[in-house]
Amino acid sequence: MGCSASLPDRNSTARLTGFNSESNGATDSKNLKVKLVLLGDSGVGKSCIVLRFVRGQFDPTSKVTVGASFLSQTIALQDSSTVKFEIWDTAGQERYAALAPLYYRGAGVAVVVYDITSPESFNKAQYWVKELQKHGSPDIVMALVGNKADLQDSRQVPIQDAMDYAEKNGMFFIETSAKTADNINQLFEEIAKRLPRTLSS
Amino acid sequence: MNNNNKMGSDPIPQQQQEIEIEGGGGQLSPSSSGYAGGIGSSSNSNPSSEIESSEIQHGENNSTSNGVVYDSASWVPGKRHDDEVSSTLQAIISFVENGGDCVNFVRAGKHQLLVILTKSVNRCFEKNPKFDMTPLLGGTDVVFSSLIHSFSWNPAAFLHAYTCLPLAYPTRQAAGAILQDVADSGVLFAILMCKHKVVSLVGAQKASLHPDDMLLLANFVLSSESFRTSESFSPICLPRYNPMAFLYAYVHFLDVETYLMLLTTSSDAFFHLKDCRIRIEMVLLKSNVLSEVQMSLLEGGLYVEDLPIDPSPRSGYLSPHLGHHRPGTESPSRCRDANPGIGGPAGLWHFIYRSINLDQYVSSEFSSPINSSHQQKRLYRAYQKLYASMHDKGTGPHKTQFRRDENYVLLCWITQDFELYAAFDPLADKALAIKTCNRVCQWVRDVENDIFLLGASPFSW
């Protein structure tokens, strides 16, 4: 699967549960808490990526997200530090575009998702990258994610195009499939590794 | 609005019908029943009739002129824009059955648009008359198709009132108390609902939630699957509260049917609302509110078969079935002479009671012979027409109406405090039907603590 970053060892992480209290704002270098926002065109699979990551589920019936859903998940890294992701899964519909700042304001991580079978969604992803460069936090960690990588036969966005674009914009790039779970955990583990360790949340 | 002519509700055929429309009060109230006026008000001690009538007048004003969009002319400046908006709804409207209240539906549809977009969408039309709003509505087709469906089964759509899930008074009080707690901490509205029925709701001081907005809000939440997946925070507009501005709604399903909506004006309030929800959920679980809600959903409600034979004493009576209706459990108060399969006493098949002061209604559960969805829809349309004929401004407010056709005897009785709509067997005896309506009113009043949200109504502030 097209992943430009070196894959971390699959066994290096373990899911933690029971870290769902929202009030522990205090973070140290071992236990980070970070706000993550998913942006991208409607139908590219943002919610599916999150639900695969947080609940290990995949539901093929499309459920249009309204506004934004909030989910959280904590992962443990090899060095025994933990990262708690507070995830805003935003609606991809155009009417919510103007409200996106509400959700990406203060985000330490932005995951911009497109569908590898839809060039239009890749264009939309570039729109979001520009928007984040203009209005997002200056030190935001950005990931470009080509989802639906299981649909290789219908691919319309060449992997090289996306890699080039990601590199030019200082983004981490990965292709995922929420359906098969390919690279979903890797995506979040890679993000966790790239977080500045002195993150102010 | 080109569809008005085609879609307008048919005049009710006058042939083969026995119709009496009476303007004076009290005709339905034989003196022997002991009813005077104030049946169905929330309190036993009625305020003076003068105050009540002025309140009613106020309500009528609200529906037409307090800056709230109701007719097409005020929807957007310029008819052309209106046509644009309407055209978005055209396809939808074409599905609405001929007997439906189409004008009402178009209004509701426009308001549902506002829930999603706010009236600021008008600016787009002002800038560009050819503006295509279709992309803005992406993914909302389910919301509108669910709204259409409401107009074939949900009495709230034409009554402009909401209904509560039947619950023991202390249970609803417990839910209301924790919601009030939250409202005091800066939440504009805290609403706990189960499907389309209100468990409890509170508003911040002076904030009032219109029943029409509640219908649209519940429709929006229930028809959008993503709300069930995880907690969410979404901009939302309540057209009757402020058609120009978004509020922010924290929505969380506590179980499959029961959901909490916390509305605020602050876009930064998510974590506060989340904390509120955690507190509320804990209290609801501890005090068993959620399990009682589930019980009521399965077994609660008013059944015409349970209509008490004799008017009960004014206080102290509670239907043993209310909120705990168990099929097969025989009760001494259950109507003895009601044959199973033919409804309640005197051929009573169904009723809807709307409390004017509370802006709430209660509808009896459907039972035989109104048990197929076809029959339920037909009765629903009959009620809609009855409502329309009783509220037709041209002919003045009617106080009573008795109508007999091949399908039903329909009885409507409107006082300052309540509106009663009742359907009987088409062969029902008129005098008995009238007497039965009085008993229904008494019954509703006897159990009002359990079927209505009292005292906490935002409309009472």
Order of helices and strands of chain A: EEHEEHEHEHEH
Helix content class of chain B: 25-40%
Structural class, from helix and strand content of chain B?
A: alpha+beta
Stated plainly, the CATH topology of chain A is called Rossmann fold
Low-confidence parts of chain B: 1-16, 24-85, 93-100, 314-321, 323-340, 457-461
Number of helices of chain B: 15
By DSSP, the count of extended strands of chain A is 7
**Number of self-contained structural domains of chain A:** 1
Total helices of chain A: the number is: 5
Cα-atom Rg of chain B, whole angstroms?
A: 22 Å
What characterizes the major β-sheet of chain B?
7 strands, mixed
Strand content of chain A: 15-25%
Number of domains of chain B: 2
Alpha-carbon distance between the two ends of chain B = 37 Å
Q: What is the averaged pLDDT score of chain A?
A: 85
Side-by-side strand order of the widest sheet of chain A:
1-3-4-2-5-6-7
Strand order of the largest sheet of chain B: 1-10-11-12-8-9-2
Oligomer: heterodimer
Q: How would a crystallographer describe the biggest sheet of chain A?
A: 7 strands, mixed
Overall pLDDT level of chain B: 75
Summarize the structure.
Chain B: Plays an important role in membrane trafficking through the secretory apparatus. The complex is a heterodimer of chains A (201) and B (461). With 201 residues, chain A is an alpha/beta fold.
Describe the fold and architecture.
The complex is a heterodimer of chains A (201) and B (461). Chain A has 201 residues and is α/β, with parallel strands linked by helices. Chain A has a single domain (26-191), classed as Rossmann fold, CATH 3.40.50. Helix content of chain A is 26%, strand content 24%. Chain A has 5 helices and 7 strands; from the N terminus they run E-E-H-E-E-H-E-H-E-H-E-H. Chain A has helices at residues 46-55, 100-104, 119-135, 159-168, 184-194, and strands at residues 14-16, 31-40, 68-76, 82-90, 109-115, 141-147, 172-175. A 7-stranded mixed sheet of chain A has the order 1-3-4-2-5-6-7, sandwiched between helices. Residues 1-26 of chain A have low confidence and may be disordered. In chain B, strands 1-10-11-12-8-9-2 form a 7-stranded mixed sheet, with helices on both faces. A 5-stranded antiparallel sheet of chain B has the order 4-3-7-6-5. Residues 1-16, 24-85, 93-100, 314-321, 323-340 and 457-461 of chain B have low confidence and may be disordered. Chain B has helices at residues 4-7, 49-65, 79-93, 102-117, 121-127, 141-150, 156-159, 169-183, 211-223, 226-229, 270-286, 289-299, 373-390, 430-446, 448-451; strands at 18-22, 162-163, 189-194, 197-203, 232-236, 247-253, 258-264, 348-355, 360-363, 400-404, 409-414, 418-424. Chain B is built from 15 helices and 12 strands. In chain B, strand 11 and strand 12 form a beta hairpin. With 461 residues, chain B is α+β, with helices and mostly antiparallel strands.
